[in-house]
Amino acid sequence: MGLKARRNRARSAQRSADSAKLPPINYHLLVETQRTVVQTQQQPLVQKPQPPLVDDKADRPLPDFPPSGQLVGRAYVIDGDTIAIKRIKIRVSGIDAPELDRPWGKKSKWTMVDICKGQTVTAKLNGERSHDRLVGTCYLPDGTDIGAEMVRRGAALDWDLFSGGKYRHLEPDDARKRLLGFGARSH
To answer: Please, which pLDDT band fits residue 51 given cuts at 50, 70 and 90?
Structure first.
């Protein structure tokens, strides 16, 4: 909008103000205000920094082992063989469950949820680490071994490399056939 158009608009506004008995408009102030608004609208927007595209999980420090060698608390279930207690991920020792994106993976997770729901879980850590997780045997308040219960319900397999075969006798007849090839490792 040119200067003449602004002045005409200001004069028109002045006439309206006069008819409504409003105080007069300062034409110079009106023009300067419009210039400031136009200049402000033309300034480039400052972009927020974008998060890095690189996965930073590898850079995260591994959790420290608690001095007592165990964690006690409510469990948050991550998948069929991983829980978190007090925000520390724990890999249930001696079992292998299908990954979430594989057949039987979600069923395995919900079986773990069913077992742990509303319970205080005790994880006795064995000093090992698996990726970003501590490894341990997990128990319910009544002494039930969570890994054994997962295998007994057919939601996980005994991983004899790490369990020494202590859960193998608990596997249902069809569990190995059903879960092998669907995310659980062949043993």
So the answer is: very low
